[in-house]
Structures are given as C-alpha cells and as structure tokens.
Design goal:
Blueprint (H helix, E strand, L loop, with lengths): L3 H11 L14 H19 L7 E2 L18 E4 L6 E7 L9 E4 L2 E4 L6 E5 L9 H19 L3 H25 L10 H7 L1
Antiparallel strand pairs: 1-6, 2-5, 3-6, 4-5
Helix pairs in contact: 1-3, 2-3, 3-4
Length: 195
C-alpha cells in the first residue's frame, strides 16, 4: 500500500501541482498543505461510510464513567481513543433487542453498566487501507489542495467534487459493502403462503 506521503503525492499530481514531497514534515508549501489536510481528510472519508477495513470490535466490554448524565440515560462512557473512535456503530450485542444510546462529543450515553461496542476507528497505518479507500482519500485531498495549488481551481474543484460524489465514493462504498454476506430472514408462514 502507498504511504501517507505517496497518497498526498497522488493528489498533488492529480491536480497538476509539483514538486512532489518527500515527507509531510518537509519545509515546502506542498508539504505544509498536505500535513494540514491529510489526517482530517482521512478521518472524514472513514467516518462517511462503514468501511470494512476500519471496523473495530473490542474484545471486552467497556466501563462507564463514575458519574452519569442528568438525562434519560443512566451511564456516560468515553468513546475509545486507542484506536481512536471516529464513529460509533453499535452498542450492545448484535442479537440483543435494539438498544438506545446517544453520542455527545467524545462521550456516549447508554442504560447499562457495561457496554459492548462496534465502531469505525482512525487508521494511521496505510497498509490497512482498501485500494478503493485510497482512491477516495486521494480524490478528497485533490478537492482540498486545488484551491491553493491549481490554476483555474474553481472549475477544477467543481469537477473533482462531481467525480467524488458520482464515481469514486459510490464505487468504493459499493465494492466495500459487497464484501459481506447479508442473510435473508424468511419466516415459515411466508414460505407456507408462497407454496
């Protein structure tokens, strides 16, 4: 997989900006721009979809904070920070009845004294990225870089946004979603009626 520098260079080349960078910390305009936008852009793209490569399922339940909220919920929990939680997907066991929970800032509220969770994590190792996720990140970085680095950037940004919304993101999300099996539930009554 490409490194974070490679991903930024793909975006720079995509908008016709040069020179390439050797690291996000080098002293150049392109590197400063890449350093400013890289992680927030990756986080935003990861948060925008339930990417299979970013799903985190902690092995054990987490414990609540000492004091609960003054709301309809009994307990406050901190969202995980290692790996960093970008989006909470599920609280409680998958086979449980639907549970009520709510995120507020970097905490969530829940009505049980322990919580089993599933979430979208921040990915810092680019080797964990799906290739189509890389394309989506590159496209979003192009949108961020273009106003500062590309000539005629207003029309270029519009074209890049359309490319992301119409081609890149839908394709990446569709392929990612196809990498799971969704079991279809059929009741005996329904089957009997169809016979």
């Amino acid at each position: 997989m490409p490194s974070n520098t490679d991903i930024c260079n793909m975006a720079l080349l995509g908008i016709g900006a040069s020179p390439k960078i050797t690291s996000l910390s080098e002293d150049s305009e392109n590197a400063r721009l890449a350093n400013a936008f890289y992680q927030p852009t990756v986080d935003a793209v990861l948060r925008s979809h339930i990417w299979n490569c970013a799903i985190e399922r902690p092995a054990s339940s987490i414990s609540p904070l000492a004091t609960g909220p003054d709301t309809d919920y009994d307990y406050y929990y901190n969202l995980p920070s290692n790996p960093y939680c970008l989006r909470l997907l599920q609280v409680g066991e998958a086979d449980d009845q639907p549970t009520l929970w709510k995120v507020e800032g970097r905490k969530f509220m829940y009505n049980s004294s322990s919580a089993k969770i599933v979430y979208i994590k921040r990915i810092v190792d680019t080797n964990e990225f799906d290739p189509l996720l890389v394309e989506a990140i590159v496209n979003r970085l192009e949108i961020k870089f273009a106003p500062s680095l590309a000539k005629g950037s207003r029309s270029m940004v519009k074209d890049l946004i359309e490319e992301y919304e119409i081609i890149t993101a839908p394709l990446a999300r569709t392929i990612d979603a196809q990498e799971s099996c969704h079991q279809q539930m059929v009741t005996e009554d329904w089957v009997a009626e169809r016979a």
